[in-house]
Design goal:
Blueprint lengths: L12 H7 L4 H5 L2 E6 L2 E8 L12 H17 L7 E12 L6 E12 L3 E9 L5 E13 L1
Antiparallel strand pairs: 1-2, 2-4, 3-6, 4-5, 5-6
Length: 143
Amino acid sequence: MQTVEMKTINYSLDDLNQLNHNTMMDHLGIRYTEATPGYIKATMPVDHRTHQPMGLLHGGASAALAESVGSVGSALLVDLEQVSVVGAQITANHLRSVTEGTVTATAKIIHQGKNTHVWNIDITDEKNRMISTCRLTNFIIRK
């Protein structure tokens, strides 16, 4: 079995946000606001792009935000020339509804293995109330 060297890649927030151009993250208005190894934050507006038909933040939009921050967080910890980061599982517990404003996802790595990364992602509203809490597992796969 071959091992993969893990390394931290340094990107600016502008670089990370440019990666979103012409993607679902761009369409949803996701913007990265902080990034250090094992920790990443991003915001997303709660508006017509992220609402479900009843005018509430769509749970799928919350899950997309959570998977986006956790996946980028893993990508910052590996050598992307040697490996790919792919989502394996995400769970989300939606705890509170929100109809407008901005939500913030804060992702912290809780397991950084050779083949898997596990992230805890909490999504809060502008009053710092918990909206959703998510757990994301990423596979780290040799190219």
